[in-house]
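Take a careful look at the protein record below. Let me know whether the structure tokens fit the sequence:
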Amino acid sequence: MEGDSDLEGKSNINVGLIRFSPEIIFRVLEKKGDEFTVLINEKSGYTSVIKLHKKNDYRTTQEYREDFFFDPNFVDTADADWYLYESWEQALKGAWSIEVPKNTLFFKEPNGEQTYMPTNDYGFGIDSLSGDWARFYRKFPDDDSEKNSKYWAKWKNKDGIIVNIILHGGYE
């Protein structure tokens, strides 16, 4: 769990600082309707089911849909029980920018023919996912020849996430 306690938050606000709301992050193993099976303990494999209520889903609010710089630490709501669930696909497709390791291999299609993606390792977007593979494009192309270039590469492997995901205007 990250963030300030209520007492720390009030103290920070009183001295002119901001409050970072407490935040619990779960690994979601499965989603069925409004229920999420989450991993509670990595070592034991203990799981639990969380049932979420639509009225508390922050993604459905107008503020979230319109705010490019949305940050859950600065939510102005009287409802302390709100949540924000994003799948990996939503997070990757909605990211401000994706950085890839310098040695990333790009392909014309997943497990297909290797190809070349020009220049630097930052400024990518993702428009499609297929398992461990993502289709990358240049969000900030260096020249016109890169504008419509789309290539596949792995965004994760068995050891974890390979790319660096920069969400919501570069705050992460």
Remarks:
- Helices lie at 6-14, 62-66, 88-94.
- DSSP finds three helices and twelve strands in the chain.
- The chain has two domains: 6-85, 90-166.
